[in-house]
Design a protein that fits this description.
Elements: E1 18-21, H1 30-39, E2 45-53, E3 56-65, H2 71-80, E4 83-85, E5 88-90, E6 94-96, H3 100-106, H4 115-124, E7 131-132, H5 139-143, E8 145-152, H6 157-164, E9 171-172, E10 175-176, E11 178-181, E12 191-197, H7 201-211, E13 214-216, E14 223-229
Antiparallel strand pairs: 1-3, 1-6, 2-3, 2-7, 4-5, 8-12, 8-14, 9-10, 11-12, 13-14
Length: about 230
C-alpha cells in the first residue's frame, strides 16, 4: 500500500467521502479523533482510522463519511471552529480519494486477511504495516496487535512464540498468530521485527507493559526488545 493521499480539487468534492487529518499530536488514537468530531457535531462520520507507515504512526488519520452528501456540511463545521484533539487545535481536515485497497477496508466492504493470508503475506514480504490500522484491515485486529522489534536478524518465528511464553497469543488451527515482518530492501540491520496478534486488547497491553525494553535471551550480542501497540 502507498500513503500518497493528496487533497482533492473542490470540483471533485461531490465524489469524496473521506477526509484526511494531518499533524495530529503524538500517540493520538482513533477514539480521540472520534470524540473531537462528535464534539463538533460533524455529520455522517462512519469510521476513523489512524494511518501507519511500516507499523510506525504517521500522526494522521482518515475519516470516512457515510455518504459524500455529508462532506460540504463537515467542511463548513471545520471552517467555523478548529478541531480540538486532546486539547490541541489541529490543521483542518481536507477531502481525499484513497486508493481502492484503502476504500474497501475503510467502508467495511472487504474482509480482513485470515491467519493463512497474513502468514503468506509475511513470507512474501508484503505485510509491511502501511495504511489504515497499519494495514491490518480493521480496528478489531489492530487493537490486538503488538509489534516486537530488536530481535537478532536470524530469529525464527518459533523463538518469538517461546519468548511470549504464557501470554495469550491468538491462534488459528493450533498455530499461533506470530509473523515475521520483512524489512525494506534498502535497510541494512542486524535486527528483526515481528507482529503478534493477541487474543484481546488487554493481552496486547500486558505484553506491551511487561515485555517492552526487556532482554531477549541469546548467547551472543545483547538484544533488547521494543514493544509497540497500534492505536
Amino acid at each position: 500500500m502507498t500513503l500518497s493521499l493528496q487533497p482533492l480539487h473542490p470540483s471533485r468534492w461531490r465524489e469524496a467521502r473521506h477526509l484526511l487529518i494531518k499533524h495530529l499530536p503524538a500517540f493520538t488514537a482513533a477514539g480521540d479523533v472520534e470524540r473531537a468530531l462528535q464534539k463538533r457535531n460533524v455529520p455522517g462520520v462512519a469510521n476513523v482510522a489512524t494511518l501507519y507507515k511500516r507499523f510506525r504512526p504517521t500522526n494522521s488519520a482518515i475519516v470516512s463519511l457515510a455518504s459524500p452528501n455529508h462532506l460540504n456540511e463537515a467542511m463548513i463545521r471545520f471552517r467555523k471552529t478548529p478541531l480540538d484533539i486532546i486539547g490541541i487545535d489541529v490543521h483542518p481536515p481536507f477531502p481525499v480519494m484513497p486508493p481502492p485497497e484503502y476504500d474497501l477496508h475503510l467502508l467495511g466492504q472487504k474482509r480482513n486477511r485470515g491467519h493463512q493470508g497474513r502468514k503468506e503475506a509475511s513470507l512474501r514480504g508484503v505485510m509491511d504495516g502501511t495504511g489504515p490500522w497499519a494495514g491490518l484491515g480493521g480496528s478489531n485486529m489492530a487493537a490486538r496487535a503488538v509489534v516486537l522489534a530488536g530481535f537478532p536478524g536470524t530469529t525464527p518465528v518459533g523463538a518469538v512464540e517461546r519468548f511470549l511464553g504464557s501470554y495469550k497469543v491468538g491462534q488459528s488451527k493450533e498455530e499461533k498468530m506470530v509473523y515475521k515482518i520483512s524489512l525494506p530492501p534498502d535497510v541494512n540491520t542486524l535486527y528483526s521485527k515481528f507482529l503478534a496478534i493477541m487474543k484481546t486488547r488487554e493481552d496486547a497491553l500486558s505484553v506491551f507493559r511487561e515485555l517492552n525494553q526487556t532482554e531477549f535471551p541469546t548467547g551472543r550480542r545483547r538484544s533488547v526488545v521494543q514493544a509497540q501497540l497500534i492505536f
